[in-house]
Amino acid sequence: MLSLQEIKLAIIGLGYVGLPLAVEFGKYRSVVGFDINQQRINALRAGHDSTLEVSDDELKEASKLSYSASLADLKSCNVFIVTVPTPIDEHKQPDLTPLIKASESIGSVLKRGDIVIYESTVYPGATEEDCVPVLERVSGLKFNVDFFAGYSPERINPGDKEHRVTTIRKVTSGSTPVVADLVDDLYKEIITAGTHKASCIKVAEAAKVIENTQRDLNIALINELAIIFNRMGIDTEAVLQAAGTKWNFLPFRPGLVGGHCIGVDPYYLTHKAQSVGYNPEIILAGRRLNDGMGAYVVSQLVKAMLKRRIHVDGARVLVMGLTFKENCPDLRNTRVVDIIAELGEYNIRVDVYDPWVSAAEAQHEHGISPIGEPVISAYDGIVLAVAHNEFRALGSENIRRYGKPEHVLYDLKYLLSSEEADLRL
Questions:
Q1: Measured between alpha carbons, how far is 70 from 72 in angstroms, rounded to an integer?
Q2: pLDDT value, residue 403
Q3: Is the separation of the CB atoms in 65 and 43 below 8 Å?
Q4: Alpha-carbon gap, residue 391 to 305, rounded angstroms
Q5: Residue 408 bridge partners (DSSP)
Q6: Which helix (H) or strand (E) holds 151?
Q7: Mean pLDDT per 10-residue interval, the chain, length 425 residues
Q8: Residue 81 bridge partners (DSSP)
Q9: Catalytic, out of 77, 131, 200, 261
Q10: Is 2 helix (H, G, I), strand (E, B) or coil?
Q11: Taking a C-beta distance cutoff of 8 angstroms, is the pair 329, 50 a contact?
């Protein structure tokens, strides 16, 4: 078995999860950061992270980190940490394609004694039932005899400069007790918040997938309450502020539920539950409600426009914000696209404005071309969809300058007061 000193580390996938991890390890030990995107590698070698998760100065601090898109550079490594995406497909089923391809790549360079640690969000059992067989098939080696595995779920929060990879407690696990100890010791090198060693890989996988399922269900409850309160003519934010005076009331807010975890992880859990003969009810009900919020928002906007005798067919609406959360360029699984698509069903022309996003990435990922600046006095409706600091700084008066003399301003994120917005979620 490898010792901590003998580890030659590789991080597979240099996105929002992999790069911060590689940078932290690269401050203390030799690390190969691998990604199949050569443009991504070139940018990192030039000293810049387009996701903005790691600053240029932080990249410089990782003096022992090298970048590569060549599998040949992985041959000298003996511990591989996999941080590739695990999305869902158009049928809301787990898409393990990136994970399987990463496992095939690692299998081609895997040697006796090596360890493969997965961080990607999966359903319980995926590491040993889906990934390990690929490693065995490609490498010709036998699991827990020739090579070993671990699982340590990522807990990255994009755009959050307070809760970083090192300051969030890390769950670890391994395929044998000795491997579990080694994996735990490896992460302890960089995780100042400490670690929690799970009893087995499946427990660690399950822990990850329920973290975001719990959040998803809590937000679904608040979304449903918002719908109820809107029908009753009660301001939801005012209700939540009043209820929040109780010490144990959870501070969730209504809204669109997207991103790389909360809107995805529950489908991994429900997929596995169905495969073992149980049809989840509460989890899927929460998912259906949250997935329907884009259509609900548009229905509210259209009703408000009609009440003001604004002609809907051919109207022009400004959507402010496209990312899945505020103050970051992350477009993964953003549900703002649901609003845009639903507006299109009413033959409404939509301008999307987001100073954080790359226009090329928005076009590539979602077929959307954001505008450079909104047009003054041009819009029949304005939707504040993301709480970027830039939008908060504008204030209601400047935001309303984008609207025609008669328009509807819908604030989804409580950036404005109830008096300043025409509609709030």
A1: 5
A2: 97
A3: no
A4: 22
A5: 381
A6: strand 148-151
A7: 94 96 96 96 95 92 96 97 93 94 98 97 96 98 98 85 89 98 97 97 96 94 96 95 96 89 90 95 96 96 97 97 93 94 97 95 94 96 97 96 97 94 93
A8: 11, 117
A9: 261
A10: coil
A11: yes
Q: Could you confirm whether 328 is annotated as catalytic? A: no
Q: Write out the two tokens for 3.
A: 């010792």
Which tokens sit at 45?
Answer: 């070698």
| Residues 119/187, Cβ–Cβ less than 8 Å | no
The secondary structure of residue 174, as a DSSP letter, is B
Question: How far is residue 180's CA from residue 198's CA, in Å, rounded to a whole number?
Answer: 8
Asked if residue 259 lies in contact with residue 332, where contact means CB atoms within 8 angstroms, the answer is yes
Do the Cβ atoms of 345 and 365 come closer than 8 Å?
no
Rounded Cα–Cα distance for residues 109 and 99 (Å): 16
Residue with tokens 């992350």: 330
Strands 170-172 and 148-151 come out as unpaired
The pair of structure tokens assigned to 335 is 């549900």
CB count, 10 Å around CB of 119?
Answer: 25
Can you give the pLDDT at residue 72? 96
Which residue's entry shows tokens 């809301």? 92
Contact present, 156 and 191 (Cβ < 8 Å)? no
